[in-house]
């Protein structure tokens, strides 16, 4: 299932390659961390109620613990089970690369609705990828090295920034540093400096995202991301930033459903060991039409870098 070849700056895929063959809604989740004993939703069957009536599922990064040698087998089982579940209900499935699964796919983002909607994991917003982690300095070093290789003296762009982020994550996995440098809740709690760093970056991440959008994706009206595991809906600079959170304790998960040009954000709760949507959406947003657009299903005008 993983992509093992070199990263390529691919042409944007044709819209019909990312358009579901059904008008059923899209569902966007992130940070499943399949294979992790505490951060994952557990059995894939627990997600089944969330897929009711869905035509297309997007997992926006960190779908599974593929970066970790000791958890790779269980992570792959989880991915296989998810694919089987989607096949059962004839749901098309897309993965976006995160920092825990950078070899799973070359797709680093989706841009929909005339580039008004951006879906990306969120690790691109800081050069250190996960600046609260022990490996942050190493990742930042890799990012800067790769920036010289990819961009050099040229003006940085949206695609080069995405490419740098993905390659830095892949380089770290290749060196297997994640096997010995992992952040755990206990480690955070026992180290006040680490705790302060984590909380500071979590509180500041919407600002980092906004700066990235201002510089490299100014047409974005709505951003859907994850990465920090902090479910939220934030308004910044005339934009809406939606973080889909995480299933692992002590975090909470939420999802985004796209029907036509309507986006609804739903909190996710666990009842009788099954994940379900809250009865009413937490927020609803409409993406305005631009000239020469229609009510077609979502189309990805840019899908990989």
Provide the descriptors you would attach to this structure in a database record.
305 residues, alpha/beta, Purple Acid Phosphatase, chain A, domain 2, 7-stranded mixed β-sheet, 5 helices, globular
Task: Kindly report the name of the CATH homologous superfamily.
Answer: Metallo-dependent phosphatases
Nearest-integer average pLDDT: 84
- Sheet/helix structural class: alpha/beta
| Count, helices | 5
The SSE order reads EEHEEEHHHHEEEEEEEE
Number of strands: 13
CATH topology: Purple Acid Phosphatase, chain A, domain 2
What's the story with the biggest beta sheet? 7 strands, mixed
Report on the structure:
26% of the residues lie in helices and 21% in strands. Strands 1, 2, 3, 9, 10, 11 and 12 form a seven-stranded mixed beta sheet that branches. Strands 7-8-6-5-4-13 form a six-stranded mixed beta sheet, covered by helices on one side. The N terminus is likely disordered. Strand 7 and strand 8 form a beta hairpin. It is an alpha/beta fold. The two termini are 19 Å apart. Helix 2 packs across helix 3. It is globular and about 50 Å long. It contains five helices and 13 strands. The protein has a single domain, classed as Metallo-dependent phosphatases (Purple Acid Phosphatase, chain A, domain 2, 4-Layer Sandwich).
